[in-house]
Write a sequence for this structure.
């Protein structure tokens, strides 16, 4: 029963923090650390991918029309639709390169390195604070901007750097309309998540036992439900320029994590 409760907690954490700009990976590491749960930490790859699959599914459901338009855009003669689909592909390139070339180094960071997580949360807070002060515009995402936002997404592989926070902040600081920035940020990650899942399955990374099934399902549905509502909420928050409150939160949690790991 404890494993189920812990999985639900991790699912809620993932569902909320995947879309809210406070770093889902960082919060999952903090949750494992404070729950002192070595069992889930040892099986973190399977749990993490399961929870990310849930939030990816929430994204697909929420943006189902946008995703359908992207797929159609690849085969469309309309320039605007085709260009948007190509921008999504371009935005994926930096993260794919980093994930393939530095896979082992990245995985070594996901072992409850709380000081690193705290420092990266502070950097996330700084990005959000700067983005919150940026001017509102109606600018669309360009091809160059898509690649730069992709670099931000690649950097956000680090635990504690919020993917949505980094990509949305980068977009806004580049002068892109806030609502467009949020939608582009959420849409660009879906192919990466499913690509990573496919790679891990083909590589035989997952060994699923019967006693893992119920906790994984519990975590999956917790992340799915929380993720859907967090995604909807986040679009409104970015549009209304309320990122500074998340910046303050990241500063507080980051400092607390560093102090806790260093002195207690």
């Amino acid at each position: 029963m404890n494993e189920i409760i812990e999985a639900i907690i991790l699912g809620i954490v993932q569902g909320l923090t995947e879309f809210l700009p406070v770093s889902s990976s960082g919060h999952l590491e903090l949750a494992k650390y404070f729950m002192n749960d070595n069992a889930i930490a040892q099986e973190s790859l399977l749990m993490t991918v399961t929870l990310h699959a849930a939030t990816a599914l929430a994204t697909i459901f929420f943006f189902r029309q946008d995703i359908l338009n992207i797929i159609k855009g690849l085969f469309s003669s309309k320039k605007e639709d085709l260009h948007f689909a190509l921008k999504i592909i371009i935005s994926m390139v930096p993260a794919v390169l980093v994930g393939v070339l530095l896979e082992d180094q990245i995985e070594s960071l996901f072992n409850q390195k709380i000081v690193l997580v705290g420092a990266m949360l502070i950097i996330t807070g700084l990005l959000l604070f700067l983005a919150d002060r940026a001017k509102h515009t109606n600018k669309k995402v360009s091809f160059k901007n898509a690649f730069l936002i992709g670099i931000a997404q690649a950097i956000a592989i680090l635990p504690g750097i919020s993917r949505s926070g980094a990509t949305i902040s980068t977009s806004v600081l580049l002068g892109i309309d806030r609502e467009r920035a949020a939608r582009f940020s959420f849409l660009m990650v879906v192919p990466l998540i499913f690509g990573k899942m496919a790679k891990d399955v083909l590589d035989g990374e997952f060994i699923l036992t019967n006693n893992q099934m119920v906790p994984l399902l519990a975590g999956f549905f917790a992340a799915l439900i929380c993720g859907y509502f967090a995604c909807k909420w986040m679009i409104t928050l970015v549009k209304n320029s309320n990122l500074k409150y998340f910046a303050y939160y990241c500063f507080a949690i980051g400092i607390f994590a560093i102090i806790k790991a260093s002195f207690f």
Q: What stands out?
A: The CA atoms of residues 91 and 146 lie 5 Å apart. The longest helix spans residues 210-239. The chain is about 80% helix and 0% strand.
